[in-house]
Specification:
alpha+beta; about 150 residues; 5-stranded antiparallel β-sheet; 5 strands; about 45% helix; 4 helices; 2 domains
């Protein structure tokens, strides 16, 4: 078996190193919950890690680096240390609270729409329009608009 440059690069990539990362709080990534982290270089990284973490606390993260790509392995471990930059921690905490509230607010908004009679009526008209040929939908929309403008049944 030949030892080529790719094997050496792969071996280097497979070596995990422990880095000190600051937990940046909850984050919404493409509509899904995730955790934000700040690596030793100050780069903002988002991972779908499990667990409960403290914003601004420092954790040991097992990672491999390959150029700009950083892979996180396992669950970061709390080191009992805290970030000294209080202004940064304040910003991270504010973003964390906003990210935690966003799904709850979206759920409340969806529930409110379900109770809203106008939203239900529009949903019903949308369902009806789906069964009409595309060329005839303009006529259907004109009929609905005319009825609304006249304000009578």
């Amino acid at each position: 078996m030949e030892n080529d440059g790719n094997s050496a690069a792969q071996a280097q990539q497979d070596e995990k190193t422990a880095e000190r990362w600051v937990f940046g709080g909850s984050h919404v990534d493409q509509g899904k919950p995730a955790h934000a982290w700040l690596d030793p270089n100050g780069a903002h990284r988002v991972y779908k890690t499990r667990g409960s973490y403290t914003v601004g606390a420092i954790y040991a993260a097992a990672v491999t680096r390959d150029g700009d790509r950083v892979t996180l392995y396992g669950t970061p471990k709390y080191l009992g240390d805290f970030c000294d930059d209080t202004a940064l921690v304040d910003q991270l905490a504010a973003r964390h609270r906003a990210a935690e509230a966003a799904p709850s607010l979206a759920a409340h908004e969806r529930a409110a729409k379900q109770k809203d009679p106008l939203e239900r009526a529009i949903d019903r008209l949308t369902e009806l329009a789906a069964h009409i040929a595309p060329a005839q939908r303009t006529g259907f929309a004109a009929y609905v608009l005319t009825r609304l403008m006249r304000g009578r049944r």
